[in-house]
Amino acid sequence: MKSIHKIIIALSITVGASVTSCQKLDIAPKNIFTADVIYSSEAGVKSVLATIYQNLPIEDFKYRPDGNGDPLGFKHGGNDWENFYNEAGVIGEEVGPFGGMDIAGGFGYWPYGDIRNVNTLIAELPKHTAVLTQAKVDALLGEAHFLRAYYYYAMAKRYGGVPIIQVAQDPGAPLSELQVHRDKEEAVWDFIGAELDLGYQMMGETNDKGRANKYVAAALKSRAMLYAACVAKYGSTNFVDGQARSLGLVGIPESKANTYFQAAYDAAKLLEGHYELYNANPDKVQNYVDLFLKADSKENIFVKQYSIANNTAHSWDATMSPRYFTANALSRSYPTLDLVSLWGDLPVTNGDGTPKRFNDRADLMNGLEPRLLATIYFPGATLRGLTFDMQRGIYPSFSGTAAAEVAKQPNSRSYILAGDTKTLYQGKQIIGFTGPWTGGDELTRTGFYVRKYVDYNKPQATVDLNRSEQPWIDMRYAEVLLNRAEAAFELGNTGDAAVCIGQIRDRAGAKPITGALTLDLVRRERRMELAFENQYYWDLKRWRTADVVLDRAHFKGLMPYYVFNENKYIFLAEPELFNREYTFQKQFYYEGIPGGEIGKNPNLLPNNPNY
Amino acid sequence: MKKLISISRILIGIAILASTACTKIDNYDGPNASFQGNLVSSEGGNLLTSGGSTQIRLQQIGWTSPQTIPSKFDGTFEDTKLFKGSYKIIPTGGAFWPIYDTVTVKIDKGTQHDFTVTPYIVIKNFTATLNGTTLTLKYDIFAPIAAGLPTITEAQPFVNTTRLVGAGASIRDFSDAFKVSINKEYTDLTDAQKTMSIDVTGMLPGRTFFVRVGVRLNDSYKSYNFSDIIQVDVPK
After folding, report:
1. Closest by Cβ to B222, choosing from A547, A602, A609
2. How many separate domains does chain A show?
3. Which of A74, A357, A396, B10 is surrounded by the fewest CB atoms within 10 Å?
4. In this predicted structure, what is the pLDDT of residue B126?
5. Mean pLDDT of A379-390
6. ipTM value
7. Architecture of the domain spanning B122-233
8. Distance between CA atoms of A25 and A163, rounded to whole angstroms?
């Protein structure tokens, strides 16, 4: 009996093995998509594009300019909530968690993996015209050229010259072929310009939201060429000497400046008539607030979208306003008085130098430019039915000038400060519910809060971390107009610059500029219009003024105090309460080539000057 | 018997493993070499420096990333934790005419090397006179090489309560607050303008301060040439 069992088992094994052995083991793996699967449909190509767009170096709400975390710098995860670690916080637009110029060395951004994806896409697409149609392939190719330019732009502004790789490298190639040399900075900018021209020529007028069309390519070209022009013009007088410079790996001949300015101007001009400044609401303040929140704005050229459902939401609302207005959150970076003063000195001091007395702190906002009020929350402004209650402390009485009071050592000032909002002075709350206070994070250190992009319609209970979905407007028509104005002014076309600036100021509710337009006014307009939009950091770099503006720089806040015996409020301009110092060294006009990459490829040497 | 043999075999195996584990695989020397020396000024003495500016930059041959030794305030430098080997070395980051050629030095235990640099500006005849609580600093500036000198941007006192005084090591209210803007080319200065004076007011009575002046140039590093350091005792 036993032996029969054994025979049966042996037989069934033999039969089973021989039957299945006829099956081919060599089958295509199910978890790898091959080219013919992907390119057999538009949906397949879209899935490739999704990764490329996701990694696109857009400096958005979540961008961490110190590179913290994984992936470095450019975030797209579900919990990238520390949106106050921003570029604005090292250049004097805001003060915040950065202790100084912490970000200038860069974080080793080196997106050749993403560029490889684009290169593969560009190589594959023409092989699939039969399925995708020639027209579709052309449009997609245009989009790919735009995307490749976007990646190279992010590197060119950081490193100057980098290797231009247009064909995906073969990993089996000899090392000498893989270890490429850097191209000259000028060559990289020319490559970016040419790629964007292809993008403009090949793409259509419209595309899905969040994807590029031909005008997006033109808008990026105006931005990139303006950068190159300034490197040529200003980088030729303010530079750090070194081998990389003498080889042209950083720096562009000054004679090329006007060519690039003209390219920036021409590209900006292409958008005329296709986009317009948002002007839907006759209330100028509300209009300017809404332009960052209304999805249907004709000003938006290129946006990045976020979604709670897809686990990509950002935290702007919860990190720009204090807990007082939110459900559970933290703010840590605050606009400076220096930024506010771009609009002119605030009327807080009388002619004799004494602080002006206010019955109500909100009166300070009277007569200020709508764009300023829409960019920054002042004391007395309202959000979600609550009032911004900024009060630094109480003076039992106040005499003398503002300047003399601020110059005193803190211990010889007669003000009363407090450690929390519950502490009272003769029945009167000493510090406001929204600061300024130094005892912890989350209350302002400057007397102001950010208003731009804050979604005032969100009910307080829903304002939490990773719960904001308003898109980041990476390119909007106002920037294109400012690019055009700056390029026009640099080319001597003051008239066209004045027209562009005039449009911007009219929409902003600002008074027209009287007198001659100057380069300084063009640049100031840009700073006011694009505050907190991650532009000024790069503007300072391309204008080569960062080492002058940020030379042991300290910034100011505007501290409201209650004067007890007068029952009035005063405002004093004082050093911001972090008391940070910011110094930008000249070598930071370029970041150093990442050490790890040099380790893999010594041909990237020489590194940029002083690295 | 069989059991015993197998146990002894296991023990022998362990013994072999244990004894080979003691063998040193990592026979590379630790960072036991050192490098020290002076930054000698072509105008005599050492180049006077301050924190966060002048550095000795070393790159070990065969390696790609450089390292630096910061200069001390008196123009000396020392690093006692270097790996033995050949290095390409260059002083950088200070207010002296740039040196473009590296020197190659074989660094071993106690290696010494001095670098000679030409300062942009030499500060001479530095005196500090106290009048009440006002400190008057007088000094002359002299450029060993005038042609092509970077623009002189500013001059300022540096005051601290310790001998470590300089950029980044000073009391802001007595130092940065008394900064004097110059923004001139050296060759455009008259002889009278090369004799400079700065008053520092409000010095605290009964305290000891250490004082020096710095003249800043708009070179790649926006660095300062410094005077020597004077001790000032403010009477009560």
Report:
1. A547
2. 1
3. B10
4. 96
5. 97
6. 0.82
7. Sandwich (2.60)
8. 43
